[in-house]
Hints:
Mean pLDDT: 77
Helix content: over 70%
Amino acid sequence: MSTRPDWRALDKDLARLTQMERVAGYVVRPLFGLGIALAFMTLAGLAAALALGTSPTTVMAATAAVFGAYLALNIGANDVANNMGPAVGARALPMAAALIAAALAEAAGAMLGGSEVVATVSRRLIDPTSISSPDLLIRAMMAAMIASALWVNLATWMGAPVSTTQSIIGAMIGATTAAAGFAAVDWLTFGGIAASWVLSPLFGAALAMGLLALIQRLISRKPDKLAAARQWLPLFLAGMGLTFGTFFLLKLPDTVASVPLQQALPIGLACGLLCFLIARPVIRRRAAQLQDQKGAIKALFRLPLVIAAVLMSFAHGANDVANAVAPLAAIVQVLDRLSTGTHPAEINPFPAILDVPFWVVLVGAFGMAVGVLLFGPRLINMVGNQITKLNPIRAYCVSTSAALTVIIASWLGLPVSSTHVAVGAVMGVGFYREHMAAKARQAGIKPLRPGLPHEDRRRRRLVRRSHVLTILAAWIITVPLSALLSALLFMLLHALAA
């Protein structure tokens, strides 16, 4: 007599196995990213060892490379939100595509535009004669890298987009003060840099608000919006081509080509004209496809938004790779001079131009790219979705204004934070929408329902105040916290070396 199988028991067992797989995946997924990050840091140390050979300073350089890779990972993880957050929040790019595009653009920008890292901040902020001992310099730079990386790592875990520029400068101040006293820091210069951190998000916000108002005037409020978009979008793309073409030429390293502004500007104009000639038929063809669809104008802005986000990632890689590799490059340069027999007193801790080996740039470039891929989604969601609601038009205004602000600051030599600029632009768009909504209610166009409770009225605000306050708090404490942590780490390293 055959027994019938108990399928219900089998279903229960399969359900238990499925649940176990889900739990295992939930536990293992973060460990997978951590494992890749540790493997990359190990490879960075091995790359330093292979590049320097059997020099007596190889172990110290390899250790510095490991911490430099750790810092680059965290810069990529935190700062990717500035570049891709608006595009993801507007649903112009899925998360996976945004991460891959950002990683490639960050690495390309770092390798093509960041190979010659000028220690402008270090020379202006710190008295070169204050740290005459190479050993003190190495410990100070090591402490600055570790402290900055730890703070950015913590901020990323908390979901706060902080400034890596602020973190590095705060860590440099803390380590230098611990090594040589308060007189070693030019506090007037620091005051000017801090002022630029306040002004840059305001400038980014104003530029984003102005661009959004311009688009609404030229396109959104026209009777035939699609015809207006066909006319103006190619011109917007031409302006982007002009700006970024000129910026790319100016950022090229001298080993590739030295292009002054007088030559870069005409070439940039040619890039803008080429972009216009390419964009015009593409926009017309796309507009014809969207003729009878709802939301056609927003759909037309997706391509310019993606282009702006990718170019912003390139510009960020070219500029902010210095945050990752400048301390490492300073350590490697000092160790190299010591290994060749140079007397310690003849070593300038902060030369006008750091001689950056290409492997150091690779550590910064690939570190930022790996950090983007492994740990980027959390902050992308914060900047793209949780501050204010973004559609392709608003996100385009954010990305374009942020990129323009960073480029203008680069030309002026101001060490602004791309995080401050991008988040400021997002807030600017949100507050502009609030202002326009309030005007519409006053005009009786979109009145709130009578008798609406105060709590519900507060929820109708288009900028989430809680997220704004969290971000502002993180900005305020970044410099003192990274400075304190760096000073403590320097004293620990100094005590261990004694």
